[in-house]
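quick one, 177 residues, struct below
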Amino acid sequence: MIAKEMSSKLNQFPVVTDGQHLSEDDLELLCEYGEAVDTIPNFFLREYGASNRNWAGSTHSINWENLISDDVRAEVPEIGWCGLGEHVALEALKGTTNRFLTTRLKNYSSDRNNPLKPKGLFGPSPYLHFRQIASQRRALEANKVRKVCPQAVDSFLEELIARRELADNFWLLLLPA
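---
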């Protein structure tokens, strides 16, 4: 998505969170699934030889039964507020009752940093964390409702893109200039 553009700014800190730094050019980089996007910079492949590694036979056998035997017996209660799967994540994002895009997005720009309003945030971030919904899908769906609440969508996209870019491209900040 934006990683290709950000990778050219190796020594710049790419995170901004005041909602004023997303440009139309940035939003043009937000593409639908299926469009070709070069996600691994060529210099990374060249410098670290990621494409030339032969991983066959390089791992040792792990006795998983011994490793997890103590944890299997431990009681961990099942959570009830978060379901499994992409369909549940999409329902949390754009469903019809008390879902983020349909009811809570309009106040996102004012409520996102208010600890007294916990529903001001997206909320079900486990869906993103455990890869049940992609950041790109969230951004695309939010962009569809831009006409209804443009300031809130801009704030949401700013947070989403800046945080995801930092998480995905933090290693770029560590490379020598």
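DSSP finds ten helices and no strands in the chain.
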